[in-house]
Design a protein that fits this description.
Keywords (chain B): Hydrolase, Signal
Distance between the termini of chain A: 59 Å
Number of helices of chain A: 11
Structural class of chain B: alpha/beta
Number of strands of chain B: 17
GO molecular function (chain A): hydrolase activity, acting on carbon-nitrogen (but not peptide) bonds
Largest sheet of chain B: 8 strands, mixed
Strand content of chain A: 15-25%
Oligomer: heterodimer
Number of domains of chain A: 2
CATH topology of the largest domain in chain A: TIM Barrel
Number of domains of chain B: 2
Order of helices and strands of chain A: HEEEEEEHEEEEHHHEHEHEHEHHHEEEE
Distance between the termini of chain B: 55 Å
Helix content of chain A: 25-40%
CATH architecture of the largest domain in chain B: Alpha-Beta Barrel
Keywords (chain A): Hydrolase, Signal
Organism (chain A): Cecembia rubra
Protein name (chain A): Imidazolonepropionase-like amidohydrolase
Largest sheet of chain A: 8 strands, mixed
Helix content of chain B: 25-40%
Chain lengths: ~450, ~425
Amino acid sequence: MKMIKYILSAFLILGCFVTIAQTQKGSVLIKNATVLTVTNGTLENTDVLVENGIIKRIGKNLNASNIQCIDGTGKYLMPGIIDAHSHVALDAVNEATAPITSEVKMGDVVNPYDIGIYRALAGGVTISHAMHGSANAIGGQNITLKHRYGTSNPEDLHMKDAPRTIKFALGENPTRVHGRGNGIQPRTRMGVDAVIRNGFNEAIQYKKAWADYENAQKQKGAKPVPPKYDSRLATLADVLDGKIIIHCHSYRADEIYALINTCREFGIKNIVFSHVNEGFKVAPELAEYTMGASVFADWWAYKFEVYYSTAYNAAILMENGVITSINSDSGELIRHLYHEAGKAQRYGQLDDDQTLALITINPAKQLGIADKVGSIEEGKQADLVLFDGHPLSVYAIPQMTFVDGVKYFDINEDPDDMRLKVSASEALEPIFLREHEHRCMHGVDFFFTNFGRNLFNHTH
Amino acid sequence: MKDMKKLLYSLILALLPILVQAQFDGEFVKPRTGKFLLQNATVVTVTKGNIENGSVLIENGKILAVGKNIQANDAEVIDCSGQFIYPGMMDAGSRLGLVEVNSLPETQDYAEIGQVTPNMQALVAVNPNSVAIPVTRVSGVTTTLAVPSGGLFPGTAALINLNGYTPDQMYAGFKGVVLNFPSSARRSTWDRRSDEDIKKEAEAAQKTLNEIWGRAETYHQLQKAKAELQYYPEMEQLSKVVAGELPLLVEVNAATDILSAIEWIQSKNAKAILMGVAEGWRVADKIAAAGLPVIVGPMLSIPTRQSDRYDAAYTNPGKMAKAGVKVVIRSNDAENTRNLPFNAGFAAAYGMGKEEALKAITINAAEVFGVADKMGSIEVGKDATLFVSTGDPFETKSQILHVFIDGYRVPMSSRHIKLYQEFLERSPGLEKN
């Protein structure tokens, strides 16, 4: 009996070590590939040496003992693709209960079993920015994920060295949910602007209350009462202090411009506009005052606020000096972002490096992780994809995908069925004709059951 | 008084030139017809190989000549050196023209109320002035099948060319009655019906289908017997299907449903084309044996089952083609019907091959729709519906340079292009001086 106890506690201790242990890091040598560094041009017949999850050396005729070697002859190696707007691996998307819900964290609802993570890897995507939905003017805090598929621990997917980000949303979605759905502000773009300003001003008051309290504490003999803790306002205070990057769902030029002005007024510089279909109309302002725009390649006309948009958006933004990325917001599109980026060559003739930047170094900049990922450079994390052709060709097929030097996708070795978990209650596997591809309004459908069946075809 | 009138008239007359000269900037470019000679291109005929340094002569809406060294002194010559000429791409399933802004029910004209509405004519609801039409045709997609959706028999689809000011000017000669075959699959991951409910609904739909079909057969027999029939527009339309005048476009996706649909089609001896066919690869041999053509797509969609390989939708058309099925590709989109070539590109990359994938959006579509005498390839006598590009249209890098539809040279302009022209270098920029 005692023996069993010892064994059990030994297991418990071991368990602790396992959970404390770092996420897996790999070593690999990829030989003789065409290396698309993104930040340093294209290197022909080049080797990339990865040690313990880090790109150690880039060069010719590299050798390493006891490291798996992969022949990249005739193949193209590019940095892992980064999706700056996704809802992959999330069990919930919208906390649509108030116009401001900055206290909510997407890190709490990560589902490591989502097959969508593997499908993204099979399309070369190594990092996704898993975001709160667009129901609220100020939504929850997002989580940047590394696609370390295979773990059952959600935390293993968190990119822990990524800065905090938060979702904001303008226009039709928050006004529909709150103004028309709940009968509260905001019902208009005036209201959205006011809600955000009120939030910022309350956060300033909150900060002041805490500063006053801390000052009062320093007085001898004083026993001040601390202000009531408020996670919602504390988060907004961090936004004001530049500790959290805003990623704002937006479409129309007027609403984008209004929030740029509000942010300037409150001294906020860390803001990225997402979707931003009419961003091209305020490209000079986006270039001057923001961390850029994360756009769709060609989506338009699925709702009125995107009727006056253009597939040339990404090209216009790039040519105006805006940091621009192309995102998916979809469990389908995330699988071929390299192709979505390629559309910026059809619509605006961007060159290869500009185009590849749209899905690598630029989204990395927007997520505040460009010093760690987003290009093939010595010292960076080894998130890499090997293609059998140039990734901007429609005929190119991803062959292997690495995160931190660990291979998570191999077209030749992986079995067809890559599910990590099969539901025991599921007698017959369900067949889905389509995914609800566009998930920004996921979780708010109960508001709109009378609005017509087509509302949720396209609803970011 | 008379003088006053005279004075007034002369004043108006004097002002007239000013009124007429009211100034508009820029010229509106309209589609125009004429005699055109496209010279020195690689002509990808689709049916008769490629012609290097070839030319295509267009007149009166038709292809007058194809080959090397074609001369025509009176034609407008377009130099296509280093470029490629392809037949217009045909999207065999789209809502283009039937919807303007999908979130606004006022602009949705593809889904009527009711389960049995085969008499709903998509062609009637096609808006020739939809902003999305020029956006689509500048991509080289020149022809689409406008498909109604909704109930069991949602309506009659119509093939349209993307140029013209009335539906009749656009109509491209094919119609088919849509049947949404009873489905055992979930519509989407939003669909939270229990397995039991799905089964019950499918069984009920199957019962309705058989009952409706029986009625249509009776109606047709009465028609043939020249009986006096009451006004019954639904049956009048289905009677044409029973008679084989109109084919059935059977939307069906899950493997078991495809097998049921094949059995049903054979038992009714109906002329049919399968649409959707997301799990066609699972039963490709059976589809081939039945000799039914398929309209498959989009390729750019997720696998129907979580256990499926990630690329199941990409490889689906290639697997069916290899099994001997005649495959046509659709986008099943509306405003982004321009993505048709990219759907074909993915099919090509994942097993179908370039040549077959190109056929799947040109000649195969024309053959399945019975319009191959007019469309689907670059051959003498066919309609001059084609485009010129800098390269392979499946590649995003390629630029589409000229588009001809029925001999009309359509302007390479759209709202997307105009916004690009206006905003690439905005004036004023950041500062207004």
